User: Which sequence fits this backbone?
């Protein structure tokens, strides 16, 4: 095909890969849609208008070369499309699955503005790299000559894994330390399989293991080693732990049994999917089967919880969100998927109190209304006096977002500087913390954010760490030469 296959949006409509029927997909944790067949992917890629200023790329945190790999896909040059996609992203098939494209690349597609429907960028991205894995085009990490320096990375989420890959490619010895028994962070334990099947993550981790990256499982900094001990062991250290402290909810009865944290709930479900022994799942504590479930929150984690509860066989699933649909932070596509699967959304509603003695039996719901804009510019929710009502609940899941843990205390590093939000303070030019040779990236710096931003931060910090290590090696060589000259 030649370049004239492009611009077909004027005659070809937008079509995403077909989703499985809601009743069918609610029975399992498999992804809800298959990837494109080749003719469909090529046709949808050909809808791209090949903009001179591609808003899709500029609104992608990774600045992926989207129009270029869409053109290559449309022309049937799929291996070249994969290589170009892989040039800017360490996990393109993962981003294709879990990025909120409706808020990023597709939401800023020029033909979307013209009323023709955005190019299905995420689905094409997923198709490209899934095909590359199937065809054997995904090559081993090309490891550079040994530099004689080592790096310790705390956290095996997307930021840590990205940094590990890029520094290993430069020839550094790389050790990754993670508190969990499997690598991947929230990709493994926080995101359900219906959005990201776990073999997709496992094959990425295996590729890094085969490159010689050393993974230390079930390793907690502060328990198994202090931060200072890791600093002495490595030439540079990266903190990429993410943020795992659940935001609190103040309401009478919040400590009642059956009121649980979102991450505990999702981790239990994912562990069960791996075949692990999960006592809290088996005894019903973290299992929605046969229960009236209420999820509090309106972000992507809340969407993961409600859709997981449906698959576990909940009797009913309601999502309480204190703002309206237009103001929720979660993906609108996820809301639609959840509604199709049987989730009821209760807008302008928040928990006022939790009923029950030892175990929760209901939620007292405060009806809300939108008042004046808050500091972020969004209209702040406020209670509507006298409009409370009660709904039954056997399981309440708090999905209100995440904050940073107290890392200076956990890591036994009181000199590690943090912001008033508990995130690690860095020099944004060097990405270095208050401790020399200790860097930080991802959510632990920017706060709870998107996987694609973590990958971008990992890419950036790998470059900064390389410059630091290069200068450190030069300084050591110069000092060695000086000592030799004095001895002579």
Assistant:
């Amino acid at each position: 095909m030649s370049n004239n296959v492009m611009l077909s949006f004027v005659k070809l409509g937008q079509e995403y890969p077909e989703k499985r029927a809601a009743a069918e997909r609610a029975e399992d944790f498999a992804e809800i849609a298959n990837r494109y067949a080749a003719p469909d992917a090529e046709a949808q890629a050909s809808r791209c208008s090949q903009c001179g200023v591609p808003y899709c790329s500029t609104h992608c945190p990774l600045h992926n070369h989207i129009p270029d790999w869409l053109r290559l896909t449309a022309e049937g040059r799929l291996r070249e499309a994969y290589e170009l996609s892989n040039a800017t992203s360490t996990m393109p098939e993962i981003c294709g699955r879990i990025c909120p494209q409706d808020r990023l690349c597709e939401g800023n597609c020029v033909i979307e503005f013209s009323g023709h429907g955005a190019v299905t960028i995420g689905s094409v991205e997923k198709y490209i790299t899934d095909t590359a894995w199937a065809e054997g085009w995904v090559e081993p990490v090309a490891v550079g000559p040994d530099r004689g320096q080592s790096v310790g990375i705390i956290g095996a989420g997307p930021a840590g894994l990205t940094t590990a890959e890029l520094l290993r490619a430069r020839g550094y010895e790389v050790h990754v330390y993670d508190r969990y028994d499997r690598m991947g962070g929230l990709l493994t334990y926080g995101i359900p399989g219906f959005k990201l099947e776990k073999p997709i993550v496992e094959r990425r981790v295996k590729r890094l293991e085969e490159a010689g990256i050393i993974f230390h499982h079930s390793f907690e900094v502060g328990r198994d080693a202090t931060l200072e001990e890791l600093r002495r062991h490595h030439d540079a250290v990266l903190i990429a732990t993410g943020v795992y402290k659940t935001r609190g909810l103040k309401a009478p009865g919040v400590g009642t049994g059956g009121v649980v944290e979102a991450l505990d709930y999702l981790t239990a479900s994912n562990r069960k999917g791996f075949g692990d022994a999960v006592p809290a799942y088996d005894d019903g504590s973290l299992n929605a089967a046969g229960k009236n479930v209420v999820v509090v929150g309106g972000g992507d984690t809340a969407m993961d919880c409600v859709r997981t509860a449906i698959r576990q066989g909940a009797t009913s699933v309601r999502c309480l969100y204190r703002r309206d649909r237009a103001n929720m932070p979660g993906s609108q596509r996820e809301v639609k998927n959840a509604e199709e699967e049987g989730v009821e959304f209760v807008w302008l509603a928040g928990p006022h109190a939790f009923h029950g003695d030892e175990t929760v039996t209901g939620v007292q719901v405060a009806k809300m209304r939108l008042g004046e804009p808050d500091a972020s510019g969004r209209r702040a929710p406020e209670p509507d006096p006298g409009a409370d009502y009660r709904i039954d609940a056997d399981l309440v899941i708090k999905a209100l977002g995440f904050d940073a843990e107290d890392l200076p205390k956990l890591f036994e590093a009181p000199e590690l500087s943090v912001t008033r939000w508990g995130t690690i303070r860095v020099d944004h030019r060097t990405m270095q913390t208050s401790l020399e040779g200790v860097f930080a990236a991802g959510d632990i710096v920017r706060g709870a954010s998107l996987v694609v931003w973590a990958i971008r931060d990992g890419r950036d910090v790998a470059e900064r760490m390389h410059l630091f290590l290069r200068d450190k090696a030069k300084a050591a060589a110069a000092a060695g030469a000086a000592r030799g000259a004095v001895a002579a």
